[in-house]
Amino acid sequence: MPRRRPAKNWSAATLKSRGWTNALIRELLPPPEYEVTESGRRRIWNKKLVKAAEEHPHFQARRIEPRKTPAQGAGNACKLLSQAWEDGGVEETASDAAILAKLIHRGLLALLPGVAKGRSLASSRAQGWIKEFLALEERGDSKSLPIVLKNFLKAGGWMGEREGAPLVRRVQGRYPQVLLASAGRALEDLAAAQPEADLSPMLRAPGFPADLLVKEGLTAVWSVWYVPQAIRTSLSLLIALNPKDEYPEARAMRRHFTLHLGGTNTGKTYAGFQRLKQARSGVYLAPLRLLALEAQETLLDAGVDCSLTTGEEEDARTWDTHTAATAEKLDMRRYYDVAVIDECQMISDGQRGYAWTRAILGVLSPEVHLCAAPEAEDLLIRLIESCGDTYEVERHKRTTPLICMTRTVDYHRVQPGDALITFSKVGVLSVAEDLRQSGKEPAIIYGALPYSTRRRQMEGFLKGEMEYIVSTDAIGMGLNLPIRRIIFLETEKFDGVERRELKPEEIRQIAGRAGRFGMYNKGYVGAVQGLPIIRAGLEAVVPPLDYAVAGFSDLVLQAEFDLLEVLTEWNRMPTVEPYRKLDITRYITIISKMREMGFTLTREQELKAANIPFDESEEALRDLFFSFLRRWQQGEDVDQPGLPEGDPTLPELEQYYRKLDLYYSFAKTFGCPVDEDRLYDSREQVADAINEILLHRLRNNIRFCQVCGKALPLYHRGRLCDECYQRERKNRARRPG
Fold first, then answer.
1. Does the pTM exceed 0.85?
2. Residue 248: pLDDT above 80?
């Protein structure tokens, strides 16, 4: 590297740093030359002439003592603060506060030379910052402490240049006491926020980051440095961990949330989405793959490069700036300028709520939009405040009135634009077939329907090829269709545990789909029976959500314990408010079964396998999962399942589609090659076959009770419904032998 040539000329600023005054310059030096720079012209003098003039007696007698450079002032400030700490006589082993004060002092000394060596401050500003520091002895909070310390460091050079100033002498006299008072308050605040935390080991831990303490505060040290380090060796800390502390990178950010609150069809998602389209990078998180796909297409149509990530498929684009995903698929390592998280009331869902909790606590974005029903407001604000983030609330109201009808609806007199709601798959199929027999062509939507088929049915309704919809409550989550009336065919549903009456929030979620803005001036809600229950649900005050579901931390893989031991212990222990733990029985069952079958996997592999989404209670899917796992562990190819032979029934086609989903999820999880084109073609083939059945051969796929004519469940083995079968058994028992 070439050596820099020494300067031949000196500027006026250099002269003044050597003790020259304007009067001496005029008396002893010749007129200056001028040098053109980017900022303008500046005066310069020949270096040799200046040095010769400095030998003149007038210069020696009248020169001013140059002020210390900022770097020299910072060095003096370090000496001043070190002496003040020693003179304070703080007993460092006496308390946690004294230890923390010493750590703050150490961090200040480490950072002061780098912060204070810049350009000198105006005296008024430096004095104001020093007074703010001294005021910490009497007041102040741990949130503002890093800012006050940062400004105090900036004023360090000023202090070092004016050692005898009265304000500097005050710092020398009160410095230890200020740090002790600040440390005590910081410990109190962290203990209040982390009641489960034992802070003493952290303060005494080797390698304590004193510089991070000064820059970001004690809370940042806890979540960013201590927790990840301690979790590797401490199972007890893992169990006691507050869910918000599982995401140290997010805790180190300054995030601002906008809460878009409103019922169904109020435009809250639209508002968040407009901001997302303007962002340089962003992510949209949805409860359904269909909504994520709609979001991707909307962004692509707007000229935004957007990838798609769901449990069933990926569309990764090389130059993407945005991602549309289901909530479970959020990339926790990627930074986004804007994040939009939809249907945040799902945070209390027992099975999937953990994904919303994880996203809200951990998404790496300075601007986050949460779209939610009003009952989620208090809970979401509580989570945001616990993270130390800021927020604002925007309330959205319906622009089209939602009217509850005064009389029940005659099932046989439904009108175009009606959506008929029942709560079982067999109910949907039998109602759809009944409508078709009377000349009314319906679209069909239910949860087990493959997404491609569901989309075909929705498109048929949008194009007017089908004038009615028959659906389960799957219609209530984000599907924006031109529905005029929602008609409830029943007011009870089986929730997987029991058959119960619909909850007010469920009624509102579904009913809100009526009266789409821009298509209808009003939306109507009615019922074939139980209309008072529907009306009461619409009028009821929905209670606020009181807990968020929390999954186990990814940090379980860092704990040096057996994975099942960690999960079992985590499941057993209570959690902090307002969280409720995810039921991880499924994880424990699958991992235990893998071990029982002789699979030897690492902790990471066991957790990956247990995370693959499939219904393990379905024998065919469970057998396929273990077949895939066996082939993968033996180094064999994991092949795509073949189509069912012959003329498969509707249940067989739906099950095959679930097998394709399992195949894709397994292959992606364990890095197996996938023929994307073949998989796509197979899915489309199944979707077409199911759509064909729904449109033209539905009755052939529904079995009816031979006594009462009631539609039988699709997997029902007998020729009679359960009620008729029991009645026939009783009649047989009464007959004389």
1. no
2. yes
